[in-house]
Amino acid sequence: MKVLSALVAVAVVAGISFNANAAIDLRVKGTIVPASCVPFLQGGGVVDYGNIPAEDLNQTSFTVLEKKEIVFNINCRSATKVGLKALDGKGFSQIPGILAATIGPDYTDNYNYGLGATVDGESIGGYAVNLKPGSFNAGGAAVKAITSLDNGTTWIETTTGAVGQTDNIASWSSTTGLPTPISFITLSGAMEVQAVINKASELTINNDVPLDGLTTFELSYL
Q1: Full-model pTM
Q2: Collapsing DSSP states into helix, strand and coil, what is residue 109?
Q3: Domain boundaries of the chain, sorted by first residue
Q4: According to the 3-state scheme, what is the secondary structure of 142-199?
Q5: Domain 35-221 belongs to what topology?
Q6: Do strands 156-157 and 63-80 pair parallel, antiparallel, or not at all (unpaired)?
Q7: Mean pLDDT across the chain
Q8: What pLDDT digit, counting tens, does each position of 55-112 carry?
Q9: 3-state SS class at 58
């Protein structure tokens, strides 16, 4: 009996020593994300100029096409400040200076989006994208487009609503006071697209030449 009692005592002591050195971690994880916003462009985001007769193109200068409008909305789950960044998917086909020479000097190549190229590699033209002045409202109140040229550090008013690339961000502010991005749940308005076609003498038009512009818009949470 005494031997048995001694063995039991050793087992108990060994068990206590093992449990004192054991450890387990509890990790608490998760990510706080901005309020989700969803942009919407009418008609799947397609601006269609239809058929453009080759004989209507100017042989020695650029041909400016009419402006086209497309409904643009942003819907957020809660009041959120957002900006709009743009990326030219056809930047390889840009024609330097085409917009500045036709639409106006403010339309530098930072606002110039390519229209693709012919099968012979000739650049077809370019286009500008504007947030149409006077068309936007947020929650029923009129707002105006503003822009940042330095990735959101500072903001300025824009009379054209032109959407630029690289470090440019477009946003919206109240119609009074300083140009500062405002929070909103719903925003609605219109985008304007104006295309300019290259000189006909620079294009080989033996077959149909489709305009092939592609701009990707990305919401930036401010």
Answers
A1: 0.84
A2: helix
A3: 35-221
A4: EEEEEEECCCCCCCEECCCCECCCCCCEEEEEECCCCCCCCCEEEEEEEEEEEEEECC
A5: Immunoglobulin-like (2.60.40)
A6: unpaired
A7: 89
A8: 999 999 999 999 999 999 999 999 999 999 999 999 999 999 999 999 999 999 999 9
A9: coil
